[in-house]
């Protein structure tokens, strides 16, 4: 598969390098060495043996290709890794290598070790997104724009409140992700530390502390809540990022032009149309998010695993879990650039507010007329005036003034200044400004 062409562009390039085959080998090695150390501390391994293992293996050149080939016969990477690493040890130490552990302990714990720095990187990116969004909220707290429902113009909002919703969405997922635990896995062949009695739980706890992972209540060989929690938390981040990308891409349309992605040499160019400036960053974010959503479905479907070892379900988790983290990190790298350099065009926002000739204000006008004309007739008059304004390309206020001047029930009943104010989008922004203020306070609380 041409991964460099089809998969990696959606991922964080730094994260790809940090989660390659060699990194997986090093993570498995870290687990095995830590296991030997905690076992030595309890007397199950001879004094000094764990240090000899470390000296022998930390600088060793593992044959990654050979390990990869061995997966076909063993079904997972731990089996050929343990065999190869044991083969590098002197005879007197071989019996103490991988003692009391099983393949799932090695693989699950190694995956947790690989993912721990990735979650830290995601948190950093989300904090940058929060800062960038807050800056946009400050600048555009009162910038009126069209609020759209079902892809149609609805009523005015501010761009600041739109960004506030983006920011709150991302921050909610950041807090959820930061609460996810990455536990060590250690249970032995069937999850009960066979042959080691209560020492098994002591080793599990000590392993977690030594590796910097969370302590599980019990080994989680077929209790896949940790994977489910992490996978769905990553999916939530992807969804929040995708929301921003979707909104931005819609607002960048030529006929809308309210925002534009940050410019960069060659960014967004077309292979055949020189005039185009495509929202490529939004496309990459959405492409990554869609893949994460698919991976999440795999993880969810693998949550219930049989008896004491998954048969295919466990195996199906590995790639989707790691790829989800790499995809989310790649998406957030794009979101950061997007928010930090987003080009906002308030003049086009005003232009689009006026696209209906002011008919977008039919709802507040109907409210103003209701006490005089009654609710139903006020709605009808307001709607008819909005349609005439649109059809004849005339100002909504002017059409309304003419209609009301001819209406004996309304004539003189509505003050001209009140009517003009009711037709002003900047005076009908609801709680937009208050929402931005409230969101900022919440964002800054943690």
TrEMBL record:
Species in which this protein is naturally found: Vreelandella nigrificans
InterPro entries assigned to the protein according to its UniProt record, in alphabetical order: AdenyloSucc_lyase_C, Fumarate_lyase_fam, Fumarate_lyase_N, L-Aspartase-like
Q: Which SMART domains match?
A: ADSL_C
Q: Does the keyword Hydrolase apply?
A: no
Protein name (record):
3-carboxy-cis,cis-muconate cycloisomerase
Task: Write down the Pfam families for this protein, in alphabetical order.
Answer: Lyase_1
Q: Which GO terms describe its molecular function?
A: isomerase activity
Question: Which family is this protein grouped under?
Answer: Belongs to the class-II fumarase/aspartase family.
What CDD domains would the database entry show? pCLME
Entry keywords, A to Z: Isomerase
According to the entry, every stretch annotated as the Adenylosuccinate lyase C-terminal domain falls at 357-440
